[in-house]
Design brief:
about 400 residues; Rossmann fold; 5-stranded parallel beta sheet; binds thiamine diphosphate; binds magnesium ion
């Protein structure tokens, strides 16, 4: 039988700009003051539809803040947020240099996305649970983790609190309710919904927050999470961080539609898109979502619209797949500069104070590194002893692990 002469094709998306091309994003049509704030305790998911298709912003291009979403933070709170972001940026830059000089095996920066975890964690209560990705280590600064402890983890030395079981930057911080970062991306999303349901079942005033990348949101885990969050009305804040890239794959490959935020609406979830480089908007949207979750009105699905300004990780070279200066064209600008400008605009900060802050933090990071290597460096150790492979996982070691333990340790 003759084959039918039909040419089959599929549509394969592409990135808007490739190396050698000029990146030019259109400026956003959404401005501070565009949207009223619905009552988080009573509004329906449909009531959030224009927030999902729009973009919540508070900071304008001149450093002013306006609109109903302005959280009205004090100058002290704003300076605290700025300090955490500056610390994260300097910490990341120093750690990247360490990786390049062979003092760390691997590293991932949050460059361009510093506001995300910091503003959002500051908007939570301290009992709330954090299910992060490797792009939210900044939450630990808000929860009080020391840089020495973080560096010990990245080296995997004797003081690493997870004893070399994870890749660098895949932190765990039990004291801060910061759950271990998972290497298989996406798993945290449905786990977060489960913990949120446990809090609800126990009638505790706890909300869970989690983040997933644009790329990982194309995985099943994301959809299971939304289904369970909606069906069981879980007190969880579900963030999709759309930073435009999943290593070298553009976000267009994961969305298929105009935006990520609106995917929450047909699941019956309140859904909002927020400018992820606007500290104040992020803070405010998260506070709103927390209030909604804590009141029993359910989960909020948030698209955090941002741009991954740096490489995916120390193993990645973005010049192979995007224009080198693309991040400088991003309509959302830089999150650190924008909060700094806002503080200067309201008369509570200056360029001099900013430079002093940067210098102070840089020496704190250098000191922290010197302190951390007292517990072992990458080349020479000491490292956690081999028997820790078997400990601290099971309360009682199962017989087959006991056998392996004895074989390894020569007992
Ligand atoms: C299940 C799984 N598939 C693939 C990978 C390899 N991988 C690690 S990060 C990443 C890209 C994730 O991109 P995105 O979700 O957008 O997060 P981003 O890095 O931009 O924050 C991939 C494919 C992985 N770690 N786990
Ligand atoms: Mg991404």
């Amino acid at each position: 039988m003759a084959k039918k002469d039909t040419k089959k094709t599929i549509d394969v998306p592409d990135a808007p700009f490739r190396p050698g091309e000029e990146a030019s994003f259109e400026s956003w049509p959404w401005n501070p003051g565009d949207y009223a704030m619905p009552d988080p305790k009573t509004c329906s998911p449909e009531d959030t539809s224009e927030l999902a298709y729009g973009l919540v912003r508070v900071l304008d291009d001149d450093g002013g803040a306006s609109g109903e979403w302005d959280p009205g933070l004090s100058a002290d709170e704003l300076r605290m947020g700025l300090e955490h972001m500056v610390r994260l940026r300097i910490f990341d830059d120093r750690m990247m240099k360490m990786q390049r000089t062979g003092l760390l095996s691997f590293y991932m920066r949050s460059f361009g996305e510093e506001a995300v975890a910091i503003a959002q964690t500051m908007a939570l209560e301290e009992q709330d649970w954090i299910f992060p990705t490797y792009r939210q280590p900044g939450a630990q600064f808000v929860r009080g983790r020391s840089m020495v402890s973080m560096i010990c983890h990245c080296i995997g030395n004797e003081e690493d609190n997870i004893k070399g079981r994870q890749m660098p930057v895949h932190y765990s911080y039990r004291e801060g309710r910061f759950i271990s970062v998972s290497s298989p991306v996406g798993t945290q999303f449905s786990q977060a919904v489960g913990v949120a349901l446990a809090s609800k079942y126990k009638d505790l005033d706890e909300v869970t927050i989690t983040w997933i990348g644009d790329g990982a949101s194309a995985e099943g885990d994301y959809h299971y999470a939304l289904t369970f969050a909606s069906v069981y009305n879980a007190p969880v804040i579900l963030n999709v961080v759309n930073n435009q890239w999943a290593i070298s794959t553009h976000a267009n490959f994961a969305s298929g539609i105009a935006n990520f935020a609106a995917r929450g609406l047909p699941y019956g979830l309140a859904s909002i898109r927020v400018d992820g480089n606007d500290f104040l908007a992020l803070y405010s949207v998260t506070k709103w979502a927390r209030e909604r979750a804590a009141s029993g009105a359910g989960s909020t699905h948030i698209e955090v619209l941002t741009y991954r300004s740096g490489a995916h990780s120390s193993s990645d070279d973005p010049s192979r797949y995007r224009p080198g200066d693309e991040h400088t064209k991003w309509p959302g600008g830089d999150p650190v500069s924008r909060l700094k400008q806002h503080l200067i605009h309201i008369g509570d900060w200056s360029e001099e104070r900013h430079s002093e802050l940067e210098e102070r933090i840089d020496s704190e990071v250098v000191e922290a590194y010197k302190e951390a290597v007292k517990f072992g460096d990458l080349a020479n150790g000491p490292y956690p002893s081999a028997d820790t492979i078997f400990t601290e996982v099971y309360e009682e070691m199962p017989w087959h692990l006991k056998e392996q333990h004895d074989e390894v340790m020569g007992d």
